[in-house]
């Protein structure tokens, strides 16, 4: 008879970083990716990147504004958030995050304003009841490439800090071998870029004029991001599989015997390879499909890391079970965050409709109702 | 000086025990510590050979500390072990290890989790924001979110009792005398003697946390993550099905 251990009594620790955290890391990652993709078109004034950059900016703005709400909700005492700001805790990457996030979001708002200022000015010339509001928002100016570049560099610094802290914050947790890898920050960034490009493809289709050039451009970017995801994932797997590094081997061992984790791994590989192949083989006309899969893939990576990672006991046998609660600590949190993001998208795109395909020009004395037609 | 439940008193004891297994804390860490008696270093030695798995410690802790339903500051992990055709039961009391180099402390973004000068790791639940970073950082799954206070929670060695000259509730109630509590800085304390005489082990030594909960008779198979068939009894699951 073979030796065996049956765990009869032990504690089941529940998930402490909730789906809110998944939403936060997903949204902030996509926002950072959106900033990066918007920079060539706006901060570096490359015309061929301008249209894609505008959609990416929408991603950056909507996700960047919704993300901190999800993060705050993940605190079990959200009303005490100010406690972060009355102490100096440089040993905690989360504390650094509390400094970086407001810096990044403020920088993003200023950068987005600088980028959209030209459109605000155009809208201010339209004869509508809101014209004065647009003129006020434009602060009496229009396109200013110098300002866009300056604010772009500031938000780039913020985005880099956010990407750094969100990755390292999790990677330093030595107690969880699945998290404790220097590859994790890179994986977060690469999957975020893939997710951003996916969302750019979706927004291009539904909220930004369905431009074919943007679709092809984004699909090519997506292929690149997914290629990088596969390379980094492959290196991580090799480090564990061949025992190159002990923590990676431990990480792999902790989940290798689980059927659920095997299915998840196959699913993740399929959700990466499939859009990669489609994006490479047929970059035009497939944006909806590749975009959906890419967004799903980026979200699923974070779900697996956070929720899946927390179901691996640190001392006990087997796995902790997790069932998604229906309330705010589960499904409602996910749906609520998605709803907030959608609301932000509707507000921003209603306030700043996609400019016409041709170069923006003043539409004087046009009735407000006709503006939407003009925009198409 | 004995710190077992049968003879516990708070005498002065400032001499270091000099045991090779007990590394000293960094000077900066010592300076950062607040509260408690700097002359002491509280620790626990668990003799798993004496544990009968009665869970009296688990219950005493819950009653003493008002631990919410479904949460545990301490529990006796119980395993059915079959080796070469023979089956037996293995008990392993688990609690916060009050590590010398506690990984839960540096990650805390508000300073709510801190270590007293006597080595006890505590959470100020009026400062804690419930971010659960410490829950993730603890290698022993010793922490959880208390849903009554919505803050991080864990074993405190019953710090309120220690400060009043009493033993932790789990030690007080242990029927087998498996849990011994005392001052490592006192060479005559029971924990110091056990450390010298029995060469106890700690959980997950490779994590470098320097736990101050020691185990006598710790089977290496249970020193880290246990490779076995998962638990049969899940209170949360049972509740869902009622």
Automatic annotation (TrEMBL), chain A:
Q: Where are the transmembrane segments?
A: 20-43, 55-73, 93-116, 147-168, 188-208, 220-244, 264-281, 288-310, 330-352
Q: Where in the cell is it found?
A: Cell membrane
- Kindly state which keywords UniProt assigns to this record, in alphabetical order: Cell membrane, Membrane, Transmembrane, Transmembrane helix
Bilayer topology reads: Multi-pass membrane protein
InterPro entries xrefs: Electron_transfer_protein, NrfD-like
The reply to whether Membrane figures as a keyword in the UniProt entry is yes
Source organism's superkingdom?
A: Bacteria
Stored Pfam families = NrfD (PF03916)
The entry assigns this protein to a family as follows: Belongs to the NrfD family.
* Listed name of the protein: Tetrathionate reductase subunit C
Organism the protein comes from: Azospirillum rugosum
Q: What is the lineage of its organism?
A: Bacteria, Pseudomonadati, Pseudomonadota, Alphaproteobacteria, Rhodospirillales
From TrEMBL, chain B:
Q: What keywords would UniProt list here?
A: 4Fe-4S, Iron, Iron-sulfur, Metal-binding
- Superkingdom per UniProt: Bacteria
Q: Name one Pfam family in it.
A: Fer4_11
Q: Which SUPFAM superfamilies match?
A: 4Fe-4S ferredoxins
4Fe-4S ferredoxin-type domain location, by residue? 42-71, 87-118, 119-148
Keyword Ribonucleoprotein, does the record have it?
Answer: no
What is the protein name given in its UniProt record?
A: Tetrathionate reductase subunit B
């Amino acid at each position: 008879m073979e030796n065996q251990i049956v765990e009869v009594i032990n504690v089941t620790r529940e998930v402490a970083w909730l789906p809110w955290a998944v939403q936060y890391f997903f949204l902030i990652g996509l926002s950072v990716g959106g900033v990066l993709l918007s920079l060539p078109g706006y901060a570096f004034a490359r015309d061929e990147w301008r249209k894609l950059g505008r959609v990416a900016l929408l991603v950056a703005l909507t996700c960047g504004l919704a993300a901190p709400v999800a993060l705050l909700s993940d605190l079990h005492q959200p009303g005490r958030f100010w406690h972060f700001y009355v102490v100096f805790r440089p040993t905690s990457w989360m504390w650094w995050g509390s400094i970086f996030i407001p810096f990044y979001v403020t920088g993003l708002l200023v950068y987005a304003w600088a980028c959209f200022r030209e459109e605000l000015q155009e809208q201010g010339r339209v004869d509508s009841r809101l014209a004065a509001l647009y003129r006020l928002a434009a602060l009496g100016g229009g396109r200013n490439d110098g300002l866009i570049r300056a604010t772009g560099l500031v938000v780039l610094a913020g985005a880099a800090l956010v990407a750094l802290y969100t990755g390292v914050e999790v990677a330093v947790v030595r107690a969880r071998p699945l998290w404790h890898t220097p590859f994790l920050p890179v994986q977060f960034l690469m999957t975020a870029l893939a997710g951003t490009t996916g969302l750019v493809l979706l927004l291009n289709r539904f909220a930004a004029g369905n431009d074919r050039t943007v679709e092809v451009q984004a699909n090519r970017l997506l292929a690149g991001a997914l290629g990088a995801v596969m390379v980094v994932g492959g290196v991580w797997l090799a480090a564990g599989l061949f025992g190159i590094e002990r923590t990676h081997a431990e990480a792999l061992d902790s989940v290798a015997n689980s059927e659920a984790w095997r299915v998840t791994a196959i699913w993740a590989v399929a959700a990466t390879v499939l859009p990669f192949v489609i994006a490479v083989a047929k970059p035009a006309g497939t944006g909806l499909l590749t975009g959906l899969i890419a967004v799903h893939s980026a979200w699923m990576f974070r779900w697996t890391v956070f929720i899946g990672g927390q179901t691996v006991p640190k001392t006990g046998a087997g796995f902790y079970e997790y069932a998604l609660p229906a309330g705010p600590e589960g499904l409602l949190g996910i749906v609520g965050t998605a709803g907030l993001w959608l609301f932000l998208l509707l507000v921003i795109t209603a306030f700043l409709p996609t400019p016409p395909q041709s170069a923006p020009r003043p539409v004087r004395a046009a009735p407000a109702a006709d503006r939407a037609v003009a925009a198409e | 000086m004995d710190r077992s439940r049968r003879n516990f008193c708070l005498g002065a004891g400032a001499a270091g025990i000099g045991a090779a297994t007990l590394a000293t804390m960094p000077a900066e860490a010592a300076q950062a510590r607040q509260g408690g008696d700097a002359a002491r270093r509280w620790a626990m030695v668990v003799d798993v050979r004496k544990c009968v798995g009665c869970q009296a410690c688990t219950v005493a802790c819950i009653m003493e500390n008002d631990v919410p339903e479904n949460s545990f500051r301490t529990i006796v992990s119980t395993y059915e072990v079959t080796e070469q055709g023979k089956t037996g039961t293995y008990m392993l009391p688990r609690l916060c290890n009050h590590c010398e180099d506690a990984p839960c402390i540096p990650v805390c973004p508000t300073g709510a989790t801190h270590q007293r000068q006597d080595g006890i790791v505590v959470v100020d639940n009026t400062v804690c924001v419930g971010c659960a970073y410490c829950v993730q950082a603890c290698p022993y799954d010793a922490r959880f979110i208390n849903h009554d206070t919505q803050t991080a929670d864990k074993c405190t060695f019953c710090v309120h009792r220690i400060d009043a000259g009493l033993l932790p509730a789990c030690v007080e109630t242990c029927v087998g005398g498996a849990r011994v509590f005392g001052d490592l800085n006192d060479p005559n304390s029971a924990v110091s003697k056990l450390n010298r005489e029995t060469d106890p082990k700690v959980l997950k030594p490779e994590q470098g946390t320097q736990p101050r909960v020691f185990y006598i008779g710790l089977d290496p198979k249970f020193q880290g993550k246990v490779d076995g068939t998962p638990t049969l009894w899940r209170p949360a699951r049972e509740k869902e099905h009622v």
